[in-house]
């Protein structure tokens, strides 16, 4: 895969020890579970989990919703998963963010799967972009989506599961469209693409 810009801020990145194999076995791990782990292992676990799971390459999406009072809101997310084909369910994993405050009101969200040439869109909706023009939206089934995306998936929120410091928003798919093209990918804290 080819490498492009690395993100800063709160996005997954490479650790100083990236490239060296790192042990995934916690010191002093016993059948007693997490309580037996050392304080150091526990305090470094979030960073190391980001680094480890950052090696799981993903696509990049923009989640959108529309609120009567506030209009369209969008955010970049790669914590997106196909959960079930019948019934058709997907999930989006959200941390503390504005989207998570708006979704209980709208009860619906759209997933735009970004194409290789939409890195600037991903940066913008992650709050890290420098767009000079406001992004346009296209509407389908009453939900806004990003034009130029490879797929549009519209969902009604069917279930909500708090999970640690995130919440899993399970959506029942109401409509979907897709086209062929190269995807935008995210790997080890960087946007990239197919080789
Ligand atoms: C590759 C990647 C994957 C990520 N995956 C996840 C994930 O799975 N889960 C997670 O919780 N976080 C994820 N994030 C982080 C997340 O994108 C940011 O924390 C984001 O800022 C959260 O958005 P928000 O809802 O809090 O809204 P804001 O931070 O308020 O909005 C995000 C940005 O979108 C712009 N924006 C929103 N609506 C509009 C509009 N209608 N018109 C124009 N601009 C608009 C805002 O101006 C802002 O710049 C990811 C970030 C990256 C880079």
TrEMBL record:
<dbReference type="InterPro" id="IPR002563">
    <property type="entry name" value="Flavin_Rdtase-like_dom"/>
</dbReference>
<dbReference type="InterPro" id="IPR050268">
    <property type="entry name" value="NADH-dep_flavin_reductase"/>
</dbReference>
<feature type="region of interest" description="Disordered">
    <location>
        <begin position="1"/>
        <end position="34"/>
    </location>
</feature>
<dbReference type="InterPro" id="IPR012349">
    <property type="entry name" value="Split_barrel_FMN-bd"/>
</dbReference>
<feature type="compositionally biased region" description="Low complexity">
    <location>
        <begin position="13"/>
        <end position="25"/>
    </location>
</feature>
<keyword id="KW-0560">Oxidoreductase</keyword>
<feature type="domain" description="Flavin reductase like">
    <location>
        <begin position="53"/>
        <end position="193"/>
    </location>
</feature>
<protein>
    <submittedName>
        <fullName>Flavin reductase family protein</fullName>
    </submittedName>
</protein>
<dbReference type="Pfam" id="PF01613">
    <property type="entry name" value="Flavin_Reduct"/>
</dbReference>
